[in-house]
Amino acid sequence: MKSPVLIHGLWLVLAAGAFAVGRFSVGSTQPVTGATTAARVVTAPPAPTAARSAESAAAARAAALSEDPSAWAARFRSADGTISAARMQEAVREALRESDPVKSMMNFSQLIKELSVDNAEAAFKTVRETVAGFESMRFLPMLTYQWGALDGTKALDAMKELGGRDGMFNSAATLAGFASTDPEAAKKWLGENGTAENRWLLDRALVTGLARSDFDAASAYVMSLEEGNRGAYVEVLAEQKIRDGISSAAEWALGLSDPSMKASALQQVADQYTRQDPAEAAAWVKEHAGADYAKDAVGTVARQYAEKDPKAAVAWAATLPAGTAQAEAYGRVYREWGRSDPTAASETLNAMPSGAAKDESISSFSRSIARENPEDAITWATAIGNATQREQAQVEVVQRWRMTDADAATQWAATNLSPEAQQKASEQPRWDRGGGGGPPFGGGGGLPFGGGGPPGRR
What we know:
Order of helices and strands: HHHHHHHHHHHHHHHHHHHHHHHHHH
Structural class: mainly alpha
Distance between the termini: 73 Å
Number of helices: 26
Radius of gyration: 31 Å
Shape: globular
Strand content: under 5%
């Protein structure tokens, strides 16, 4: 075996040599002249093979994506410039089977532009035959929306034939397209085909289509709905207004006369505003924090602000006027902070003065840590000053505790809760929307008619 000292010595010699070469070839700042200059020229080493390969791959990809989708589709067109049903099937298959997802979508989008009443059904059937599951949701909503805009009645008939959830969700995208080009016919179809099961989704789709073509007509339709249901659909109007800019959307929302619509619209605007600039959104919503219609908007800002900067969010909540909105803000902040850094949250929570805001904060905080640390959570819940709120928080902690240690949770409840509260504690927890460690809640999933859920089920 070679001596370690010798090996280390060799490395030292090599390192010294490399240093000398580097010093005399590129490190010196002294001028050189004559023949010596040529001897000291240092040529840059060739780029590593991996780097060259990455550059080549990037160049090849850029070249592929630079291909004009219209030129790609040209070989499927007839002499009159249209694509027949049979050729549309071939084109759709080729677009969907393209291995590059970006190029696949570019080519498919071109086919959407060339959809017609003659080839739309063929395109729809081919997509359903070629892709399935979530992959199909990349393509079907665009296609059905466009088919609905071209030939709403026929397209919706095809969706009804599907039946089940597929038929219902594809009908929604189709109806949105139908409403964008023929609002009265779309309303008539909905009146004849809406059911208790699908009406919430189809109403939302109708409002989406109307809002994209005639915002005032969409607003009028929402106002024609039952008062209790308007708030759920005004979100769609807000989403459309937000495209015009946050300031415009905020002004529109504040000008609504219907209380439920105003509250829902403001919450939607607040959500988007906070994504863009949490501190600015917090300052904006603070101006309206004393109004009942702004409570949910305040909570939305608080939740998102806390995700980004919980200490700043707590400081902001302290500046809100005392009352429901402030308690809501504190509760949302500590719910999020409890999930991300419970130690820091508890230290700040301990310093809060007693009162409604602290009780709401503890209630939210205890729920947020209940599954990971139920003993601490129940201790916090027991510290709530308001007796009714304290028992409710204890019940909600026990519900979550049961999911990790049912015996310990049941034993604590039997010792500390009333029989009625014990019964409630044995039920499944009501998960907080957007927090609290519960199951995920999906959004729109990229659907052209928006996301959300039915009124009363959100």
